[in-house]
Amino acid sequence: MNKRHMTNLGWDDQADVVVVGGGGAGLRAGLAAATKGAKTIVLEKTGDPGGKTAMSIGIMTASGTSVQKAAGVRDSHARHLADVQAMAKEAGAKIDIGSTKFMMRVCSAELENLIGLGVKFSGPHPEGPHGTPRMHVVQPDCRHLVDVLVRRCAKKRVDIRLNTPGAELILDHKGQVAGVRADSTGGPRFVAAGAVVLAAGDYSANQAMVETVAPKLKLAMPLRDFATGDGHRMAMRIGARAQNMGRVNLPQLRFMDWPYVEPSPGLVGAGARLVTAKGARIKTKLAGSILMPGFEKNWEEIFIVIDAGCAAKLAMASDDVGPGRDGWARSGKPFIGTAPQVGYAYLEDCRAWDWHFEAKSMAAAARHIGCKPADLAASLAKNTSGPFHVLGPTRRVIANSGGGIATNEKTNVLAEDDRIIKGLYGAGVNARLISFMGGHGYALAWAMASGNIAGAGAAGHANRQL
Ligand SMILES: Cc1cc2nc3c(=O)[nH]c(=O)nc-3n(C[C@H](O)[C@H](O)[C@H](O)COP(=O)(O)OP(=O)(O)OC[C@H]3O[C@@H](n4cnc5c(N)ncnc54)[C@H](O)[C@@H]3O)c2cc1C
Q1: What is the pLDDT of residue 212?
Q2: Which residues are CB-neighbours of 303 under 8 A, at least 6 positions away?
C-alpha cells in the first residue's frame, strides 16, 4: 500500500489506516493493520500510550485455551456457553447465542494470538459462578502488555503520535470516511485515511455525556480524565448508532494507586472496618458489602482497617491447591480483591503495594491515616488487637462506562439504520456487539480481539480503495 488515498483536499498527512486512541484496542488495531502492510498512524491524546488497558487488572476470561490445557483443565466453548446461559437466567438477562459464541471464539483465539506475541498468562484461576477455571491473568501486568504492543508496533513502523487527539471524522463527497482532523499542539492537522479505527476508550469522565445517558446516576469521580467519549462523539456526529449508553458502571471503591484493585465485599463480613481520613466509621447499608449504598455522600478518601482477628479469617497462599489461586474458593474465606499477576490478592500480596501499611499499634495506624487514635479506636471493634493492616486510600470512582458504538462482527461501525458506515471501524469500548456475558474479564479480551479484527479489516478496506 502506501499510495495517497485523497490528494486534492489539502491534507497535511496521509495513511492507509488512522487509529484514534492508543490504548489497548488502538495499539492492537495499529499492529494488525501494519501487519497487513498498511501505512498506519495511531493518534493518542495523552503523553503515554496504554489508556485504561495499562491500568487493568489483566483478567481475560476464555475457554479451551492452551493455558487451561497445560494445567490439565478440560474446557470447551460449549461448557462456557452453558455457564453463561445459567448466569443469564439467574440475572434475568436475554442473550443472543450467535454473538455469545462469536465472543467466546474470538476472545479465546486472541488470547492465543497474544501468547504468540510474547504475552504470558497465569491461571487458569477459578471464577465463580463459572463451573471451570477460566480466568487468565496477564503476566506480570497490563503495563507489560502495553509495552509488548508498543514494541511490536514500532517493529512494524506504526507511527504513534502522542499528545495528538483525534477531533473529527472527515467524509468525502460520497459520505465515506476519508480522514481525521487531529488537534496537535501545533494546531489542527488533517490526515487522509483509507480507513479509520475509533478506539478512544470510554466516556466516564464526560460529565455531560454521563448526565444525558444516565441522569439518575449520582456522579462519583472518574478514575481518569482522558475518558471523555471522543470516539463515541465522533461516530455519533456522522450518524453512527450508540447502544447501551445508559450502562455506566456503578461507582465503586478502588485504590487510587497501582494496582487499582476494587476491595472485595467479603472483607466487611470478615470484620474489616471502613473509616474516613478523620477516623470516622462508615457503615454500609448492605451487610458485608463494600458496594455503593452508604457511600453516596462520601467523596473523601476511605481507608480499610484489618485487625489481627480479621486477618486470620482471610484466605492465604497456603490455602491454594491449584491450578491458579483457588484457596479462597476452596475455603470460602475472603480475599482482598482481584489483582494483577495473582488473579486474587491475599493480604500477604498487599505488602508489595504502596497502599498497604502494617502498623503494630492502633496509634501507628491512626498516624498513617492522619486521624486521632481515639477517633480510630471508636471506629474499630471493642476487643480489637494488632497488628493492623491499613489499606488505602480508596475513593469512590466510576472506573468505566459500558455503552458503545454499534458494530457488526467485522467491527464495521453501523449507522442508525443499521447500514455500514464505509471506512469506519470500532475497537475496544468503541465497539459493542452484545450486552451480557456474565462475570468479568471480557472487556480486556474484547479490546484485544476487536482491535485485531478492526485493524485487519481497516487495512483491507484501505487497500480496496487504491
Ligand atoms: C482499574 C481497571 C481495571 C480493569 N480490569 C479489567 C480486567 O481485569 N479485565 C477486563 O476485562 N477489563 C478490565 N478493565 C476494563 C478494561 O481494561 C477496558 O475496558 C479496556 O482495556 C479498554 O480498552 P480500550 O482500548 O477500549 O480503551 P483504553 O485502554 O482506555 O484506551 C483509550 C485510549 O484512547 C485515548 N483517547 C481518548 N480520546 C482520544 C482522542 N480524542 N484522540 C486520541 N486518543 C484518545 C486515551 O487517552 C486512551 O489512551 C479494567 C478497567 C479499569 C479502569
Answers
A1: 77
A2: 274, 275, 276, 277, 369, 390, 391, 392, 393, 394
Query: How far is it, in rounded angstroms, from Cα 320 to Cα 111?
Result: 25
Q: What are phi and psi of 50, to 5 degrees?
A: 130, -40
pTM over cut 0.90: yes
For residue 202, how far is its CA from the centre of ligand 1 (angstroms)? 7
Ligand 1 near 462 CB (within 6 A): no
Quick: pLDDT tens for 46-70: 999 999 999 999 999 999 999 999 9
How is residue 311 written as a grid cell?
Answer: 486477618
**Residue 295 near ligand 1, beta carbon < 6 Å:** no
Question: How much is the pLDDT for 93?
Answer: 87
**Does residue 7 carry a pLDDT above 60?**
no
Cα-to-centroid distance, 3 and ligand 1 (Å)? 32
Q: Which atom of ligand 1 is nearest to the CA of 46?
A: 47
Q: Which atom of ligand 1 is nearest to the CA of 24?
A: 25
- Rounded distance, CA 444 to CA 53, Å? 7
Q: Ligand 1, closest atom to CA 23? A: 31
Q: From the alpha carbon of 447, which atom of ligand 1 is closest?
A: 23
d(CA 47, CA 325): 36
**pLDDT tens-digit readout, 198-225:** 999 999 899 888 877 766 655 567 889 9
Tell me how many helices (H) and strands (E) the chain has. 14, 21
52 lines ligand 1 (CB under 6 A): yes
**CA 18 to CA 180: how far, in whole Å?**
8
> pLDDT band for position 322 (50/70/90)?
confident
Q: How far apart, in Å, are the Cα atoms of 69 and each of 44, 128, 189, 441?
A: 38, 20, 49, 19
**444: CA distance to ligand 1 center in Å?**
8
Atom 48 in ligand 1: residue holding the nearest Cα: 51
Q: Report the nearest-CA residue for atom 3 of ligand 1.
A: 56
